[in-house]
Amino acid sequence: MSKEIKQSCRRFLRTVGVSIVFFATINLAPLLFPAGTIIHTASKDLTTMTDYTPFATSASAQSARDIIGPSPLIEIKNEAPPKLIVDRPLPKPLAQGRVFIQYRAENLRVLPVFGEGALQVSPRIGHVHITVDDAPWHFADTSGQTIILVGLEPGSHKVLIELADPTHKVITSEKVTFTVPNLER
């Protein structure tokens, strides 16, 4: 790594006040900070690199579980009911005729696992069903990523997003309505 890049990285980290640093995963610590370097973090703690040992500091008291939820490796007793949160379509893509709908599930992991046996899995798993404009059919999505719809005619539309268990039984749902603008070319 060039000297200029190292200096630039150091300046950036000092400027923004590092709140969470974990160089071990990308092996930058030895390149950016020689042993004994003192780093000032946003939490006002001082951290010293010793023998290029990876480190992590945090400005908040939140745990990993607080941010990402329970570990998928441990059974959860008395799981809370699943919840579906669906946002309005993103305005910028919608103005261009593309529909991007972000959603998330709580107390259910969206995964491509199906069948009766999967009902016993803990933490709970499932997927989403997506129906556009009351079509007699829907499609299933197991990615957990933003839903993208293209090619809809200009005008009003509605999308039904259903959170379903591994046997396709609907647990909860949300409906989003929006208008695709007329894009004259």
Write the layout of secondary structure elements.
Blueprint: H1 3-16, H2 29-32, E1 38-40, E2 46-48, H3 64-68, E3 83-86, H4 91-95, E4 99-101, E5 103-106, E6 109-110, E7 125-132, E8 139-141, E9 147-149, E10 155-164, E11 170-180
Parallel strand pairs: 6-7
Antiparallel strand pairs: 1-2, 3-5, 4-9, 7-8, 7-10, 10-11
Short description:
With 185 residues, this protein is of the alpha+beta class. The protein is 15% helix and 29% strand.
3D structure, described in words:
The chain is 15% helix and 29% strand. It has helices spanning 3-16, 29-32, 64-68, 91-95; strands at residues 38-40, 46-48, 83-86, 99-101, 103-106, 109-110, 125-132, 139-141, 147-149, 155-164, 170-180. Strands 6, 7, 8, 10 and 11 form a 5-stranded mixed beta sheet that branches. It is flat. The chain starts with a helix and ends in a 5-residue tail after the last strand. Mean pLDDT is 79; it is low at 16-31 and 37-58.
The percent of residues in helical segments reads: 10-25%
The best one-word shape is: flat
* SSE order, one letter for each helix or strand: HHEEHEHEEEEEEEE
Unreliable runs: 16-31, 37-58
Mean pLDDT: 79
Largest sheet: 5 strands, mixed
Span of the ends, CA to CA = 48 Å
Beta-strand residue fraction: 25-35%
Cα-based radius of gyration, to the nearest Å: 23 Å
Question: What is the tally of beta strands?
Answer: 11
> Helix/strand-derived class?
alpha+beta
Number of helices: 4
